[in-house]
Write a structure and sequence with these properties.
With about 425 residues, the protein is of the alpha+beta class. It contains ten helices and 23 strands. The strands form seven sheets. The chain has a seven-stranded mixed beta sheet with strand order 16-14-17-18-23-22-19, sandwiched between helices. Strands 9-8-10-11 form a four-stranded antiparallel beta sheet, with no helix packed on it. The relative contact order is 0.13.
Length: about 425
């Protein structure tokens, strides 16, 4: 799963018109060079996603020798040299080890998650400028108690427990505990997936809602390895079928309901689903094999869409061939599933979602899980394609991304950071805390 990184802004490029006799000044020189820089940034943002390129490890260290007595504790880490790229394609280059003290205090009994992030610093946007002819692009290291924003790259997170903080390395890097470095959520710079599918679930009071959500997460996790051209959003949304929540519902390509939920919808909830389907969304309903098929038909008829068995549709229906090819539909626990389709309604007869993840007895063979996941990815791909084709053929526009006005850092930044050598010469502990 991945974060839905926003695409570039849709705006024209401006470049300098040069003729014989054109006078060059600082403003025109900057315009000429910013054109190439902006094209590079937009190129990267269009085809790639931000993250760590190499290294940028995080170590637990002893307090630096220059730290005063009050800061000589077990809260110190060291960020190793490395390279990252932010959302706009700006390189974040850390050339020397950087010492950093985790300063957050846990004021309640509830643990506090802190994030250690690096971000690009454009020297042109600093309050204090270097008067020399050469300026160095640099970076900023920050500690946050809220998740990183789009222009920050996470290098580490730590779940601080109440009481005295003593940072340590995790005994198991896959399952870090309190006050231990957690590097599991570092994103790597890589090619941007062609599609990002968002999945929502309608909460219910059934016995196994948590297991259903867990299986859906397993399905979304499988997308990156089985079909890298598509990615699942990092969170499964929970939505209510209410008219005042329609704008939120329209952010999802697919909504999951159990068959019991589909049979107990009110007229107002059915109206919301109709609007969602008209906007290109897909409703996925899962039912048990022994449930009454007339109930499926009644649900679809209420929405004005008759159901058709996938086996009776064209052989090249997207659910059967994209991106994975299925002649026969998969079987779960030796029972073949059945798929009914009506416009944006997809009804799975059979417990397909149970094979998307780990069953309680860990008894499902790998082939059964993989086949079920591939069928699930076909459903996700169908939902994304239907929404995109509908959206781009009608007056339905996605929400514009909330981005700065141009592919540069915000205009107001703290004063220019010192070089790493200057940092190590500082004597004040307050300076050590603001790298």
């Amino acid at each position: 799963m991945t974060k839905p990184w926003p695409p570039p802004q849709i705006k024209p490029f401006e470049r300098l018109r040069v003729n014989d006799g054109t006078l060059m000044n600082a403003q025109r020189w900057k315009l000429a060079h910013d054109y190439h820089r902006q094209r590079q940034n937009v190129y990267y943002q269009s085809l790639n996603q931000p993250g760590i390129v190499c290294d940028l490890g995080v170590w637990v260290i002893e307090p630096p020798a220059e730290a005063s007595a009050q800061y000589r504790d077990e809260r110190w880490v060291q960020i190793q040299p490395g390279i990252a790229i932010d959302l706009y394609g700006n390189f974040i280059v850390v050339t020397e080890p950087m010492d950093f003290r985790i300063a957050s205090e846990v004021t309640t009994e509830k643990p506090l998650m802190v994030y250690l992030v690096v971000s690009y610093v454009d020297p042109d946007n600093l309050r204090r400028h270097n008067n020399g002819d050469i300026v160095k692009e640099t970076f900023r290291i920050e500690e946050k108690t809220n998740p990183p924003h789009d222009l920050e790259v996470e290098v580490c997170r730590i779940l601080l427990a109440s009481g005295k903080v003593q940072l340590s390395l995790p005994a198991d890097v896959f399952f870090p505990s309190y006050n231990q470095l957690d590097l599991r959520y570092r994103t790597q710079a890589r090619s941007r997936p062609q599609s990002l599918v968002r999945l929502g679930i309608v909460p219910n009071n059934l016995p196994q809602p948590a297991q259903i959500a867990t299986n859906l997460k397993y399905l979304l996790q499988s997308v990156a390895s089985l079909y890298p051209a598509m990615s699942g959003a990092d969170k499964i949304g929970q939505v209510r079928l209410q008219a005042n929540d329609l704008e939120k519902i329209l952010n999802y390509d697919l909504l999951y309901l159990t068959n019991q939920q589909s049979l107990s919808l009110t007229n107002s909830e059915l109206s919301v689903i109709q609007e969602y389907l008209a906007a290109g969304g897909v409703i996925l309903v899962e039912a048990q094999i022994d449930e009454d098929s007339l109930a499926f038909d009644n649900f679809a008829q209420q929405l004005g869409t008759p159901l058709v068995d996938l086996n009776h549709l064209k052989r090249n229906h997207p659910l059967r061939i994209q991106p994975f090819l299925f002649a026969a539909l998969p079987s779960v626990q030796e029972q073949p599933i059945k798929i009914l389709i009506g416009g944006g309604i997809v009804i799975i007869v059979g417990n397909l979602s149970a094979a998307w993840g780990l069953d309680e007895d860990l008894a499902l063979p790998r082939e059964a899980i993989r086949t079920a996941q591939e069928m699930g990815i076909n459903i996700l791909h169908f939902a994304w394609c239907r929404r995109q084709l509908t959206m781009h053929s009608r007056n339905i526009a996605p929400q514009p991304p909330n981005l700065p006005s141009s592919p540069t850092m915000p205009k107001t930044l703290p004063e220019s950071p010192m070089s790493p050598k200057q940092k190590r010469k500082r004597k004040k502990p307050s300076d050590l805390l603001n790298l």
